[in-house]
Design brief:
This protein has one helix and 18 strands. It is mainly beta.
Length: 196
């Protein structure tokens, strides 16, 4: 099992579905209360990516990816069209000094409750760091989401940019639908790869 640092074809069509999936156990008590327990501390991202009426060249890209990944064995990058951007995301407060590092994250907030998502597959050339809203020179490891920079003590570090989700094919079979001799269609099920 390995991870291939390549994004799958970004020509999904309308009908794309997917996003975060939690696992919650619910027990109905005699009192009428529903007891709930989270079985995961973070969501699992699951997608259905339709490729409708794609040309032969794109058909070949999907076939190549599927075969090179040995079906669901190896992971790869995929763009979640519903959630792929960091917009002034607060990473933390700088400690100061040389070669300081921080992990890219995205925080989801609602009613005073936060969930922090670790971003491990930023897209090359899209990430910008800021020190108290002033651009900050940095390097980005696009395989881990760790950024390296030099800052002064107490400065708030923020990030903007785009990211992929590490995924794997769910199915062990790939079946195309030939609409006509020029175009092909397929629906691909993908699941987040936590090992990436």
């Amino acid at each position: 099992m390995a991870f291939i640092e390549q994004a799958l074809l970004d020509k999904v069509t309308y009908g794309f579905t997917g996003g975060p999936t939690f696992l919650t156990t619910r027990v109905n008590l005699l009192s009428g209360i529903v007891a709930r327990n989270a079985e995961r501390s973070r969501p699992l991202y699951i997608f259905n990516a339709p490729y409708e009426n794609i040309q032969q060249v794109h058909h070949d890209v999907v076939i190549d990816a599927y075969n090179a990944c040995l079906g669901g064995l190896h992971g790869f990058r995929f763009k979640d069209w519903a959630d792929f951007a960091l917009t002034i995301e607060v990473l933390g407060t700088a400690l100061g000094g040389t070669d300081e590092t921080m992990q890219l994250i995205k925080t989801y907030s609602f009613g005073g409750t936060d969930l922090v998502r670790t971003i491990v597959k930023p897209i090359t050339g899209t990430i910008s760091l800021f020190e108290d809203a002033v651009p900050l020179a940095s390097t980005v490891d696009t395989t881990t989401g760790i950024v390296t920079f030099t800052s002064t003590v107490g400065k708030v570090i923020t990030a903007t940019g785009e990211f992929d989700v590490p995924v794997m094919f769910v199915d062990d079979a790939l079946r195309f639908n030939f609409a006509n001799y020029r175009t092909h269609s397929i629906d691909i099920d993908l699941m987040e790869d936590f090992t990436a």
